């Protein structure tokens, strides 16, 4: 039987890629381990190696083809003794299978409508007028590009800004967020560090004491647990401990929360950890516009900022204002969708889930208001409380664990500031209280899904 | 004993003391005495309940910071751990502000919000005052990074103890400092005891060689002799300032008091302490040299004693008279 060569997934979150180049042509014989083709994703170029031996019977996807879904057959390999006639027996090239078939596709990404490669510009339901005017002229950018642009613009604006972290320079970023920065700014300002999280986090804080403005990238926030002493004890507390004499103008950024199928030690949301600590600002953007406007604000801010990104969002596109002075205020939430029946708060990737849930709820006659928190600390309590005064119901959504989580804070906030307005108990939609499992089905069960939000909102509305 | 093949010609250990002027010698004497008297007073105020919490005294180690600081320039950065009162005084910070911080008063360097372990002075380039053992080492390496980035010619002096030297982040710092040739002097103040654990029980190998695999030159210095400290610092500070990267100086020193005020120090004998005090005291040694070398007479030294005593008494009075911070200060300086 001819063997199908499938489009491989090169990373846990890859759903599609470009077939950049064929290194073998039809009729060529291949040995296992030989490079067949080159595949490009938004992160990297990788080689596809043959697993089986044989002869290329037919190339199904021409080189230069974009958006080839993972698991699409890209060629057919003939085994010894087979000839081209066997090809007719081979199945016709299937259309790109739904991502759900991809063994490595993220269950979250699959379930939620936001996993589409592009989503519409962040809908401006009740955007601040100030913010809205920037949206007159926009360009579609991925979250990844928006983050890079924010850093590049701020580095051009202030020569005290520098970027440091593992693989940020020559490798162009482990997730390609710092792509091109080394080329533009040189190795004095875009600095590859050894794998030494507590060391470079502390070094960055020390440099910030002297007035530099480091942007410290953690390859993921999971690794920042090695460095958390400097984030809290050195960065967050120094202004207070020095009686206001000196602080730490530093940004710690990187992907936070679950990616896809990377297991317990690489899938954790740190929002409530950092949000617990006075002296820090904690930001968790959703859209590319959020990412750009808030990262620029974070770099300009004189305080230490923990900037929690999301790997699955990196490749998603949104409209981003062209104006370089588009800077979003820290501490201000955004009402992404106006509604009157129930308030749903969310941050980072969960904003997309919440909006998807709101669409489903709308079909059932429930008009949900969705608040994108954007900043976790300081929390925009006014926007949340005002919304609940109108809807009388609150559902809090987060990917992290429920105990002492952001949802717990929301519940406390409602008790303290909106008790008389509540018509239903606050409902927390959170990650399941277990270390992240690896198995695809279990991982999906562990993370909040759109349907969980729909159910929670209905419960809040006694429906 | 050298940890590196690169080594300037002069030998650290045999640096000649006679090159130092009388004026300089008297300056060291005054500085060390100020620290000694200040710390004795702090111990006294602690006993009276005027200073709370942790209070780590520097008595016995004065020659280290005075010798190193004398070799630095204005604009160089200094950072240390929680045994920091001596460093602040040696950086030229006002004794009143330091003592008032110990008593938690408004007139303290951190307005009473930092305490013994957390004081800073932007003006004097003193960057703390850090309470997590070893935490100041990457921070100080970052100060050196900033000097290099800003091309301001400054270096960073990073002090840590023989306890901190076993923290992993110290080696992360050594690695980056050597890799990027950062202008940093790592000073290990080896007072033989990490709280109650002696160096023998905690540390394998020689501390000054801990940078060897990174190619960082490392030397052991008699930290009870301010002139030896100064000579070593002079030599290596220049080496660092010329862009050759970091250096480690291990200062063999001794603290007379416990780890903190609440430590009875039963892990060592009275005889051991007494022997160090009587045979190696940095102030007594310098005093003898001053008199023997004709740099000063008893009257001159008494005058310095009186002057130092006056500063300390004034600081103690200020520290008691300065009001506690206003309750509103609870909420200030959290964020800018």
From TrEMBL, chain A:
Molecular function in Gene Ontology: metal ion binding; pyruvate dehydrogenase (acetyl-transferring) activity
Enzyme class: oxidoreductase
Domain Lipoyl-binding: 2-78
Catalytic activity: N(6)-[(R)-lipoyl]-L-lysyl-[protein] + pyruvate + H(+) = N(6)-[(R)-S(8)-acetyldihydrolipoyl]-L-lysyl-[protein] + CO2
Enzyme Commission number(s) from the entry: 1.2.4.1
Required cofactor(s): (R)-lipoate; thiamine diphosphate
PROSITE patterns per UniProt: BIOTINYL_LIPOYL (PS50968), LIPOYL (PS00189)
GO annotation terms (biological process): pyruvate decarboxylation to acetyl-CoA
SMART domains reported in the protein's UniProt record: Transket_pyr
SUPFAM superfamilies: Single hybrid motif (SSF51230), Thiamin diphosphate-binding fold (THDP-binding) (SSF52518), TK C-terminal domain-like (SSF52922)
This protein's UniProt keywords: Lipoyl, Metal-binding, Oxidoreductase, Potassium, Pyruvate, Thiamine pyrophosphate, Transit peptide
Annotated Pfam families: Biotin_lipoyl, Transket_pyr, Transketolase_C
Functional note: The pyruvate dehydrogenase complex catalyzes the overall conversion of pyruvate to acetyl-CoA and CO2.
Quaternary structure note: Heterodimer of an alpha and a beta chain.
Name recorded for this polypeptide: Pyruvate dehydrogenase E1 component subunit beta
Lineage of producing organism: Bacteria, Pseudomonadati, Pseudomonadota, Alphaproteobacteria, Rhodospirillales
């Amino acid at each position: 039987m001819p063997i199908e060569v499938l489009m491989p997934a090169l990373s846990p979150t890859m759903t599609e890629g470009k077939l950049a180049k064929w290194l073998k042509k039809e009729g060529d014989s291949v040995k296992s381990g030989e490079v067949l083709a080159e595949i490009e994703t938004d992160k990297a170029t990788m080689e596809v190696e043959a697993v089986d031996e044989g002869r290329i019977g037919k190339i199904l996807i021409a080189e230069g083809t974009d958006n080839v879904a993972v698991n699409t057959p890209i060629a057919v390999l003939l085994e010894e003794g087979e000839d081209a006639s066997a090809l007719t027996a081979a199945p016709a090239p299937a259309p790109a299978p739904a991502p759900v078939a991809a063994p490595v596709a993220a269950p979250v990404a699959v379930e939620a409508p936001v996993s589409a490669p592009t989503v519409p510009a962040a809908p401006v339901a009740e955007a601040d007028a100030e913010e809205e005017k920037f949206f007159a002229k926009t360009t579609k950018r991925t979250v990844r590009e928006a983050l890079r642009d924010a850093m590049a613009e701020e580095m051009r604006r202030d020569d005290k800004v520098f970027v440091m972290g593992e693989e940020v320079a020559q490798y162009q970023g482990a997730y390609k967020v710092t792509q091109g920065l080394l080329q533009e700014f040189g190795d004095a300002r875009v600095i590859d560090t050894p794998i030494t999280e507590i060391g470079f986090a502390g070094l960055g804080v020390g440099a910030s004491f002297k007035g530099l403005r480091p942007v410290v990238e953690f390859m993921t926030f999971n690794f920042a647990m090695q460095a958390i002493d400097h984030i809290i004890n050195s960065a967050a507390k120094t202004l207070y401990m020095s009686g206001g004499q000196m602080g730490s103008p530093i940004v710690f950024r990187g992907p936070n929360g679950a990616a896809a199928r990377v297991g317990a030690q690489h899938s954790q949301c740190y929002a409530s950890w950092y949000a617990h600590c006075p002296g820090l600002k904690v930001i968790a953007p959703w859209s590319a516009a959020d990412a750009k406007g808030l990262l620029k604000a974070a770099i300009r801010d004189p305080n230490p900022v923990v900037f929690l990104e999301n790997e699955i969002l990196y490749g998603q596109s949104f409209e981003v204002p062209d104006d370089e002075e588009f800077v979003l205020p820290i501490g201000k939430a955004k009402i992404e969708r106006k509604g009157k029946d129930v308030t749903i708060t969310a941050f980072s990737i969960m904003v997309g889930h919440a909006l998807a849930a709101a669409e489903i709820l709308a079909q059932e006659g429930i008009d949900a208001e969705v608040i994108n928190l954007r900043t976790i600390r300081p929390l925009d309590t006014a926007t949340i409380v005002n919304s609940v005064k109108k809807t009388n119901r609150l559902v809090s959504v987060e990917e992290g664990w429920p105990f002492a989580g952001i949802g717990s804070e929301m519940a406390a906030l409602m008790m303290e500031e909106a008790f008389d307005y509540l018509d239903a108990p606050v409902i927390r939609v959170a990650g399941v209280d277990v270390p992240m499992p690896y198995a695809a089905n279990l991982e999906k069960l562990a993370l909040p899904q759109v349907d969980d939000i729909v159910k929670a909102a209905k419960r809040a509305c006694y429906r | 004993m050298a940890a590196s093949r690169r080594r300037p010609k002069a030998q650290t250990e045999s640096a000649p003391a006679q090159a130092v002027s009388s004026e300089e010698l008297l300056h060291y004497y005054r500085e060390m005495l100020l620290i000694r008297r200040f710390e004795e007073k702090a111990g006294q105020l602690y006993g009276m309940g005027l200073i709370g919490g942790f209070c780590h005294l520097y008595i016995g180690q004065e020659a280290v910071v005075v010798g190193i600081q004398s070799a630095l320039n204005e604009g160089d950065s200094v950072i240390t751990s929680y045994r920091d009162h001596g460093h602040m005084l040696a950086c030229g910070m006002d004794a009143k502000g330091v003592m008032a911080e110990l008593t938690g008063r408004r007139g303290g360097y951190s307005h009473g919000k930092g305490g013994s372990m957390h004081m800073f002075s932007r003006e004097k380039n003193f960057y703390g005052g850090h309470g997590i053992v070893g935490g100041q080492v990457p921070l100080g390496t970052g100060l050196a990074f900033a000097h290099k980035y800003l091309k301001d010619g400054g270096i960073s002096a990073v002090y840590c103890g023989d306890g901190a030297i076993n923290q992993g982040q110290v080696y992360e710092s050594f690695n980056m400092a050597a890799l990027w040739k950062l202008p940093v002097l790592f000073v290990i103040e080896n007072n033989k005891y990490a709280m109650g654990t002696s160096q023998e029980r905690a540390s394998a190998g020689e501390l000054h060689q801990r940078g060897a695999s990174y190619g960082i030159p490392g030397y052991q210095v008699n930290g009870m002799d301010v002139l030896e400290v100064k000579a070593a610092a002079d030599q290596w500070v220049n080496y660092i300032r010329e862009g050759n990267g970091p250096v480690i100086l291990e200062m063999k020193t001794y603290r007379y008091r416990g780890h903190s005020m609440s430590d009875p120090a039963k892990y060592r004998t009275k005889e051991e302490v007494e022997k160090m005090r009587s045979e190696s005291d940095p102030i007594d040694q310098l005093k003898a040299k001053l008199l023997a070398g004709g740099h000063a007479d008893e009257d001159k030294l008494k005058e310095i004693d009186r002057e130092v005593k006056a500063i300390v008494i004034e600081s103690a009075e200020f520290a008691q008279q300065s009001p506690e911070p206003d309750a509103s200060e609870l909420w200030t300086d959290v964020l800018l």
